[in-house]
Amino acid sequence: MFVNRKAELELLNQSYHSEKAELFVLYGRRRVGKTELLTHFCADKRTIFFVADLNAEPALRAGLSKAVNQELFGAQAAQATYQTWEDIFLALAAAAQNERLLVVLDEFTYLVATHPSLASLLQRLWDSTLRHTKLMLILCGSYIGMMEDSVLGYRAPLYGRRTAQYRLETFDFFDARQFYPAYSAEDQVRTYAIIGGTPGYLNPLTFSLSLDQLVQTQVLQRGAFLYDEVRLLLQQELRQPRAYFAVLEAIAGGRTRLNEIKQSTGLDGVTAYLETLQNLLLVERVVPATETQPHKSRRGLYQLKDHFFRFWFRFLHPNRTLLERGANQLAWQSLISPQIDTFAGPVFEEICEHFLWRLGMEGRLAFLPIQSGKWWHANEEIDVVLIGSQDLLVAECKWSARPVGTDILQDLLRRANLIKRETGDKQLFYALCSRSGFTPQLLELAEQRGDLLLVSLAEMV
User: Fold this and answer.
1) Under a CB-based contact definition with an 8 Å cutoff, are residues 158 and 150 in contact?
2) Where are the alpha helices (DSSP H) in 221-314?
3) C-alpha distances in angstroms, 241 versus 201, 219, 247, 313, 355?
4) Domain end call among 297, 327, 342
5) Is there a contact between 137 and 24 (Cβ–Cβ < 8 Å)?
6) Are residues 185 and 280 in the same domain?
7) Structural domain harbouring 361
8) Domain shared by 158 and 193, yes or no
9) Are residues 334 and 349 in the same domain?
10) Domain tally for the chain?
11) 117 and 76 belong to one structural domain
12) Which of 167, 193, 227 lies at the terminal end of a domain, its last residue?
């Protein structure tokens, strides 16, 4: 199932129609949908698409030779193998002299790992020959390999040659929910809280099952696709998986400040591990939305950004002994399901933030937001803050089975006065987001006020 990716396809098509040589770098963590995106993009174009693996250099060269020859010269020439990698790229240059030729080297980091001088060779050929053709070369790979070894890093051979680059990210709720449209609105939020927005996690799942059955059989059951996904991804993506696992476990356990993570893990260089996890979009550092210099803020907290990682560390990892003995149904019914709405609460706040941001981008708010996030000070917190140049919206998000009433609004008004100390004389607007709607009294009050927006989950979906 191919969902959205409109902005990514637009950027790829801009490069494709530029009429000049393009070196496009597409990267991101595994299972985020890089290959699926490129397959969709290449469907109606003259393309050579090669996916590398962990094979030996002669086999990889033979595989790419076959893909090149089959596209350029037909099936009868497919078995001929070029003697050198340089010969392959010179053949591509010749074929792209007068018309656009699209070449995708997927899992490019595997090619470089097998033939380390390939990146330097490609640099030389790009400077001397390829950039004078109509070739569009797409190098695709994981974040770590592309950043450190091949293309994006300052010391990488291909640094500065790329004409465009894009880090592919996971889906937000509004895209992810297209995989399970038959679920109720509430179960759509719960599903997003559990599985998240990684396409490689969503595609294989059987959403014809109820949410209870889905989690029991395809997440918690030993041998299921997602059962060991966290460990496997860390082993595939990172060079020191145990260290990164310790950092993630510490954050999942509530150690959200840098010093707490250092003390919990006992690791040297925790800052570097955190930076890598942030680049992989597994961890994020959050500061109050009102901070003017976020990177210098002492109020920063670390939290798991990927929802499935949050679920895995919160419920699957601590109950592993029980699950290993086949008690997945018991674990779900007794230990997980009773807590799932508490777990989904912060995810609902994120969904509300994205929805309010969309309203602002569509001109459906009183102002255009330029940044958003949470706000906290001491024991006070505001779930969502949208900041404009002269305006400010504060929102409370309630994942509760009861309708939101005027008492929630009064408390939001009180906390909004606290945030004024940091925002000056910006004009204040208010929003209340609710899973279960609003009381008649609050609906009547909202009609009387011009600064209050009420948003229900039903409206969001």
Assistant:
1) yes
2) 229-237, 241-252, 258-265, 270-279, 307-311
3) 20, 21, 10, 15, 35
4) 342
5) yes
6) yes
7) 344-460
8) no
9) no
10) 3
11) yes
12) 167
Per-residue pLDDT of the chain (461 residues; tens, 9 = 90+): 688 899 999 999 999 999 899 999 999 988 999 999 999 999 999 999 999 998 999 999 999 999 999 999 988 887 889 999 999 999 999 999 999 999 999 999 899 989 989 999 999 999 999 999 999 999 998 876 666 667 888 888 888 899 999 999 999 999 999 999 999 999 999 999 999 999 999 999 999 999 999 999 999 999 999 999 999 999 988 889 999 999 999 999 999 999 999 999 999 999 999 999 998 899 999 999 999 888 888 899 999 999 999 999 999 999 999 999 999 999 999 999 999 999 999 999 999 999 999 999 999 999 999 999 999 988 999 999 999 999 999 999 999 999 999 999 999 999 999 998 888 889 999 999 999 999 999 999 999 999 999 999 999 99
Q: Are residues 325 and 356 in the same domain?
A: no
Q: Tell me the CATH number at 263.
A: 1.10.10
DSSP 8-state secondary structure symbol assigned to residue 332: I
Give the CATH number, domain containing residue 110: 3.40.50.300
Cα distances from 262 to residues 317, 349, 387, in angstroms, run 21, 29, 33
Is residue 393 domain-shared with residue 380, that is, in the same domain?
yes
| pTM confidence score | 0.93
Q: Contacts from 224-232 at CB under 8 Å and sequence distance 24+?
A: 226/195, 226/201, 226/308, 227/316, 227/323, 229/201, 229/308, 229/312, 230/308, 230/309, 230/312, 230/313, 230/317
